[in-house]
């Protein structure tokens, strides 16, 4: 069991990394990230891709945390503070009463990551996704539909920012990902590993519903508004989602969910034909 | 052309309804709503379901607003303020520099709304959606896939809150909707108008991909977490979306997008078989 360390003073240096988390959300923490709430903490203590560094909890919540505390090593301190002290540390009313610092331990290179995936896994390639809500939503959908890995180009925001982790419901701590160097030819990388590139665009050549899933796909999504570059679209199968005339506007995370559901459902249907139940 | 009214003092009573919009977001404004940004303002001035009451803009943006101003009646005042005055009025840095007050003019009863829809329109029925991001996302998806109307039960939040409108990219001002009285039997109402109820649930009896779309569907979505009541599910076709074991968690707006895309695509495929191109 971990040690419970009472914190009486918001200025205690032992909880410095938790201080004013809203303001510091964008400045980074030497490779650490902040996780909030029970669902996300549960992923943090179970995922093989990250490790908890410490917890900071409202002392009245301690009795409800046995399942999480049981999974912590003895060396992980659990700081416990009264709610007003906790609020003063965080810089806002922290109703959930549960914070943790974590460190990502699984930081693969893209090449090694793709090489290690099962033969039928799909991947997501995200380009210039700068909004943390969208990043979190995309990871959530990637986890829900069993995507093998997420590749982020150099213009994406960090999926381990507090808000992205929260919106992902912990998926950002669970789905393997790699950040691509700026000068890499991402399509050549995908091709080397046998991923068929499906690039989403409102002007895509093929409607999603008509798309027969390739053996393994790389679903490529760009930022809402600018979208993907014409140079990239020209080298891929460009895919569109037909929408109502006059309102052709889908959120990028929703788009990802629709595409991943289509691929999963179409593969299931194909497998059912190839291997009918006896 | 509307009159341009310079505003020099953040305390000017003429712009009282714009003051501290963040704090007042949840208190209502006597039937008025706040719209932000060019895309949403464009819907506000073109949608037949609402009308602009006034605009408040950063004076340096005035020269870029001809397309919007041209659509305003002479009686709609356009208040123009220097950026610092605008920020002081709004209560935070208003980078977009574009606000409007609007009033919804189309407030149908659910019965009349459903009676007036085209024979092949689907509808959404939302139950206890209390999160404004999700509400906005659901309206955005409803507009993108041409849903005829949205019905809200008495436990839903208001789609005309500032943030819901913004997240909807204006769809909340465009898609017809009605709020149901608390004691109404919503399923009986839908049945009277010939809508087949499809209730989404992680434990749904039928997988979405196998669902043949009914002539007109009512897609029913509940809040993440509690979901729809067993009593309601027992009276409907319950539909699930298969997900990865250990992470069966989709955002409710994303779920709506996936379902609406499936219905639209399956209908298109059926129509292509019934009426093949010559």
From TrEMBL, chains A, B:
InterPro entries according to UniProt: Alpha/beta_knot_MTases, Ribosomal_eL30-like_sf, rRNA_Methyltransferase, SpoU_MeTrfase, tRNA_m1G_MTases_N
Q: Which CDD domains match?
A: SpoU-like_rRNA-MTase
- One Pfam family for this entry, by name? SpoU_methylase
Which residues belong to any copy of the tRNA/rRNA methyltransferase SpoU type domain?
Answer: 123-261
Q: Which UniProt keywords apply?
A: Methyltransferase, Transferase
Alphabetically, which GO biological process terms does the record hold?
methylation; RNA processing
| Keyword Transferase attributed | yes
GO MF annotation list = RNA binding; RNA methyltransferase activity
Superkingdom field: Bacteria
Q: Indicate what this protein is called per its UniProt record.
A: tRNA G18 (Ribose-2'-O)-methylase SpoU
- The protein's organism comes out as Sphingomonas jinjuensis
């Amino acid at each position: 069991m971990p040690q419970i360390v009472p914190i009486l003073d918001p200025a205690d240096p032992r909880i410095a990394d938790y201080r004013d988390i809203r303001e510091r959300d964008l400045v980074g923490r030497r490779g650490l990230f902040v996780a909030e709430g029970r669902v996300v903490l549960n992923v943090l203590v179970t995922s093989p891709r990250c490790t908890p560094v410490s917890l900071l909890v409202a002392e009245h919540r301690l009795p409800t945390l046995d399942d999480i505390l049981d999974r912590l090593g003895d060396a992980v301190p659990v700081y416990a503070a009264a709610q007003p002290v906790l609020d003063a540390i965080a810089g806002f009313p922290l109703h959930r009463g549960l914070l943790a610092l974590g460190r990502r331990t699984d930081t693969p290179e893209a090449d090694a990551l793709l090489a290690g995936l099962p033969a039928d896994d799909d991947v997501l390639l995200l380009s210039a996704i700068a909004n943390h809500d969208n990043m979190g939503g995309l990871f959530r959908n990637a986890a829900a539909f069993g995507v093998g890995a997420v590749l982020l180009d150099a213009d994406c925001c960090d999926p381990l920012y507090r808000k992205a982790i929260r919106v992902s419901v912990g998926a950002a701590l669970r789905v393997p990902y790699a950040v691509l160097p700026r000068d890499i030819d991402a399509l050549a990388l995908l091709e080397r590993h046998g991923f068929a590139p499906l690039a989403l665009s409102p002007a895509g050549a093929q409607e999603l519903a008509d798309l027969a899933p390739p053996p393994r796909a790389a679903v490529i999504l760009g930022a809402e508004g600018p979208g993907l570059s014409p140079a990239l679209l020209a080298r891929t199968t460009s895919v569109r989602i037909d929408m109502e005339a006059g309102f052709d506007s889908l959120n990028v995370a929703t788009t990802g969910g629709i595409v991943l559901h289509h691929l999963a459902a179409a593969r299931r249907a194909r497998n059912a034909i190839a291997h009918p139940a006896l």
